[in-house]
Fold this protein.
Amino acid sequence: MRDQTNHSESAETPERVLARYMSERGLKSTRQRSLVLSTFFHAGGHLNVEELLARIREVDPKVSAATVYRTMKLLTESGIAHARHFGDGQTRFEIASEHHDHLICTSCGTIVEFEDDKIEALQLEVARRHGFTVTDHKMELYGRCGACAEKARSA
């Protein structure tokens, strides 16, 4: 199952997708929005707004948290980013790309992305047996990473 918002296969860059999305809604491109987009894409991973803001302020200390929140909302609405909730009360953002699943450590917060064709096939088979047509899904497995499990064993 593939995420239909994979921009890496199309000729459109995230900047063009965002520019078109904003233009269609009568919004203007700004230097600060471009900085948020650029910083987000170069950071990778699963960032919350505060983490992203800290990186942005290394370049421009005048960027407000509200600007980052609004820009991340635009990136999510336009399909450039995905908002994720991993049970810690925070919204984290990741670049929209091919489908993948997550392992989340409940002790240290480490997030590991993984792909497994057998798991994907099994999910589709389970859905088929129940008469479902899967249009999208998220799989998140919660537990302890190896380092945290080792710490717990030796404590």
